Amino acid sequence: MAGYDEATLERLGADAAAIMARYPDPRSGLLPMLHLVQSQDGYVSPAGIAFCARTLGLSNAEVSAVATFYTQYKRHPNGEYTVGVCTNTLCAVMGGDAIWEEVTHHLGIGHDETTPDGKVTLERIECNAACDYAPVMMVNWEFFDNQTPQSAVSTVYRLIAGEEVRPTRGASSVCSFKQMSRVLAGFPDGRADEGVGAGPATLRGTKLARSRGWTAPSFDVPADAAAAPADGAPAAGQPQSSAERPPTTPADTSAATTQAPGSTPARPEKES
């Protein structure tokens, strides 16, 4: 296969086989397999697309359609570190916009652009799913909480200088984009629990509920309650439900809906 040497193909093939073995339908492994080839090339390359397509019995176009839908898959060479600055509502109000402006000013690049040395690719993120620590910046999807313009710029310069940078939570250091892509392919590096998982801000609601004796409603439902809603109406698809309503329109009594089970629908006659 063009693009990969024999040793690389053998290694990718073994990893791809492990991915496909996780799913009843091997084609369901396309998403992690895209991360796998991204861990090899630093982006989803033409060679990576061809590898996924051939391995899963898909066309290159089908694989490309998936790869271009999700923003975690890069279609051009990515930097060693993806720095994502959240500028969604809460982070923006708390200073995310100022962080973005400061980082772009110092790096001289914009969204989805990479520094000339190939170290940092910058992204403007709509949400980092960490609103309790806004404003948040991520580096290869590791959290950097409660950032300021100054702390964000300092982190970026340390990455460029090759210094070890420690996230606020999760792993004890930031790995490379290729290494993280392999983790996302489903091959853990064992570092996820090195640091703090859920911090005080995340756990505050749980602790408050416990201190006041609050509990969530029980999910235990009587066996017969699932058969019909509380108002006595039948469940969807059951007799007398909307799925069993009497014919009210011409379409309800067309040949396609009134024939015996297993019979071939009659073709509508052409208008003269």
Helix and strand topology:
Elements: H1 6-20, H2 30-41, H3 46-56, H4 60-67, E1 81-86, H5 89-107, E2 113-114, E3 120-125, E4 137-139, E5 142-144, H6 149-160, H7 177-184, H8 200-212, H9 255-258
Parallel strand pairs: 1-3
Antiparallel strand pairs: 1-4, 2-3, 4-5
Helix pairs in contact: 1-2, 2-3, 2-7, 3-4, 5-6
Keywords: 2Fe-2S, Iron, Iron-sulfur, Metal-binding
Family: Belongs to the complex I 24 kDa subunit family.
Biased composition (Low complexity): 222-240, 250-261
Name the CATH class of the domain at 81-176.
Alpha Beta
Beta fraction of the residues?
A: 5-15%
The pLDDT mean sits at 87
Largest sheet: 5 strands, mixed
Assign a percent range to the helix content.
25-40%
Number of strands: 5
User: What is the H level of CATH, i.e. the homologous superfamily of the domain at 81-176?
Assistant: Glutaredoxin
What is the CATH-assigned architecture of the domain at 81-176? 3-Layer(aba) Sandwich
Count of alpha/pi helices: 9
Query: Structural class, please?
Result: alpha+beta
Distance from first to last alpha carbon:
57 Å
CATH topology of the domain at 81-176: Glutaredoxin
Order of helices and strands: HHHHEHEEEEHHHH
Oligomer: single chain
